[in-house]
Amino acid sequence: MKNRIPRTLLTLVAALVCGFTAPATAKQATEILHIDAALDRPVVPANQMEDVVVQITIRPELVHSDRERPPVNLSLVLDRSGSMSGEKMEQAIQAAEVAVGRLGSRDMVSIIIYDDQVDTLVSSQLATREGLASIKSKLRRITARGNTAIYAGLNQAAAELRRHQDNGYINRMILLSDGLANHGPSQVSDFRALGRALAGEDIVISTIGLGLGFNEDIMTTLAEAGQGNTYFVENADDLPRIFAGELGDALNVAATNIEIIVRPCGGARIIKSLGREAELDGDLARFRMPQVYNGLEKLALLEVRAPKGSVGAINDLIEVEVNYIAVGESRTRSQQISVPITYTDEVEHVVAAARKDVAQNVMDNRVAEAKEEAIAYADAGDRDEAAKRLRGVVGQISADYGFLGDDFVAEPSAVMESEADQVEAEGLSNEKRKSYRADSYQSRNQQSVQ
């Protein structure tokens, strides 16, 4: 084979490509966010088009600063319908106590309780020591009753949050429900529209589904539209831990209004986003995130078709721009980096340069997509097609990353084959369906499961 690149040069190129952040390095020393972008295959075969995945990583600095964190404007929305009676209600009250107990005297808190009626148990107020004592006393008097008016409860919580949302607060809503929305608006589309509207007001919504009776489609859709987290909790004993972790996120916001803009270079073409949804507009892809948290990285994955390149060529494949507002500031900061791709005529160099960490995240998101497809077919009563979708991801994982060896793809492939066998034989149980929905969402959004 002619025109071979010296092995030492290729090794150096691969190393540079794998962790390429040079344009941003000097600037990042003083930035709140560290931005990185890497390809699953930064070195590809020459003289042919190749589909690769770019992973954009936003890593907030874990800072212990003397500067005061921004205050939180929190509203808890608690289901008090009849199915919550007994241990569930007790654990929900305990979880709410844990949450409000972590607030500081500059934070605002409100608590909404609902069944077929909505009551403001605690109107929006500062979380002072005296106020928290009163709040805990009121929580202890909640009893379960009636049906489930989730939509009305959310609207009332939003009204409480709006009383202070323009005063520099981080606005957060946490919904807990164990039942179906059976009073008032109850369609998934209703909650998607509501979640998007509230996200447009910088109100982030997280949802906690307790037990096996809640509607996971509503809860997941609401979290996705509201750009928060979602949890499937079988055991009420887990509620205090989850509430504490969820509030911990709100107390540690590093930046808001994050926008990732990806532009292809030199004949490259964006195919689609993977996992986290992107807005595709011609030759541009845009990801949006409302908040990122100290020490917790977030990813955006994008499939890109790389153009043909000659042996030894190193070309910019995409340009990435990340805009955001650091907490405590009003101005928008911006960082830019370029991501190169290298062309070779030796397969071993493709393998040596491959980023297994990126490939693992790609596989996780492909599995998440397959689970979503399986749910749709299982709901329609087509077990065979649901199982086929799960087996299909096995073939895709092998096609994408089989070149990295059987050890790399064997475990996820075996897990999905087993899942497919179970779905084919039994369909999706209520519990499994809820697990699929939550797992898929958490993978696509890099949710830190407490």
Write structural notes for this entry.
This protein is of the alpha/beta class. The chain has 3 domains: about 5-65 and about 255-355, Mu homology domain, subdomain B (Immunoglobulin-like), CATH 2.60.40; about 70-250, Rossmann fold; about 355-445, no CATH class. Helix content is about 40%, strand content about 30%. The protein is built from 13 helices and 16 strands. The protein has helices spanning about 5-20, 20-30, 85-100, 130-140, 150-160, 190-200, 215-225, 240-250, 345-355, 355-380, 385-400, 405-425, 430-445; strands spanning about 35-40, 45, 50-60, 70-80, 110-115, 120-125, 170-175, 205-210, 225-235, 255-265, 270-275, 280, 285-295, 300-305, 315-325, 335-345. The chain has a 6-stranded mixed beta sheet. Strands 6-5-4-7-8-9 form a 6-stranded mixed beta sheet, sandwiched between helices. Helix 6 (about 190-200) packs parallel to helix 7 (about 215-225), helix 7 packs parallel to helix 13 and helix 11 runs antiparallel to helix 12. The longest helix has 24 residues, at about 355-380. The radius of gyration is 24 Å and the shape is globular. The N and C termini lie far apart (about 55 Å).
